[in-house]
Amino acid sequence: ENSIVAKNYQISKKLGNGAFGEIWQATHLKTKEEVAIKFEEINSKHQQLYAECKIYLWFHSDSTVLAQAIPQVLYYGVEGNKNIMVMDLLGLSLEDAFTQCNRKFSVKTVLMIADQMIKRIEYVHSRRIIHRDIKPDNFSFGITKNAHRIFIFDFGLAKKFMSSTGEHIKYREGKSLTGTARYASVSTHLGIEQARRDDIEGLGYVFMYFLRGSLPWMNLRAKNIKEKYEKIKEKKIMTKIEDLCKGFPDEFVQYCTYCRTLNFEDKPDYAYLRTLFKNLFKNLGYEYDYQYDWVVNAGKKGDEAKK
């Protein structure tokens, strides 16, 4: 399509689509800045783009530098029969990077990623928001000078868990699953209202997915989505954490075990979790040099080509 959006943006290529609509890459006609534009049908049943936009603006109303690892919204409006949100363009998602590395990450790469992911979630929680859809697709590297930094995005399912006066949302049961079943916490499968602990537990499954290459509850056969969710839940509850983390440093067992001991209103001890991994990183003699697996692989391929 050769279309101009919001008078200033030339659409170039489609980046993906989700439940909400589509994401396209575009270029600002004057500044030549690359952006991402999210489209949502105006008549779609579950409008979430405006709510998501408000969450981004809420993060960016804060001047602390941590907010910089959350993309900024540059414009929100209506274009034809669609709501649109223009935002910073991000680079490779963790899922893409994982695929590039033949779906296996080294312990070093996972630890460098984990440190940043825990930091991002801690920041999101500090603004009284829970993400509720932790998955590798919702974390991406920045571009240009931020190419080594991990950004968190897609707040389409996010919600406030605490009021400005510090009142935590109420414990509820019988909720349907919000988020991605593969990385959902056990409590989420059990229909319990989500809180900070569930984001943290979801990260644990992402780390193990990266290390193992898959999770025990993937590729289960089922007749329909309801049965599939049921099977994932059963398998997740039946899988011992020791077995999930078998063959990898004990710190991953400690991380996952800690997540499951948290109560509904608990504030996770983010510093404890990051220190757990930082100490492991040191003990393994790694250097925090942002040489992720795909960077190293690309370097090797370059060297091969030169021969």
Could you characterize the architecture of this molecule?
The chain is α+β, with helices and mostly antiparallel strands and 307 residues long. The chain contains 10 helices and 10 strands. It has helices spanning 49-60, 94-100, 107-126, 186-189, 196-212, 225-238, 241-244, 250-261, 270-283, 293-306; strands at residues 4-5, 9-18, 21-28, 34-41, 73-79, 82-88, 129-130, 139-141, 150-152, 159-160. The strands form 3 sheets. A 6-stranded antiparallel sheet has the order 1-2-3-4-6-5, with helices on one face. The protein has a two-stranded antiparallel ribbon with strand order 7-10. Strands 8-9 form a two-stranded antiparallel sheet. A hairpin with a 2-residue loop joins strand 2 and strand 3. The protein is globular and about 55 Å long. The mean pLDDT is 94.
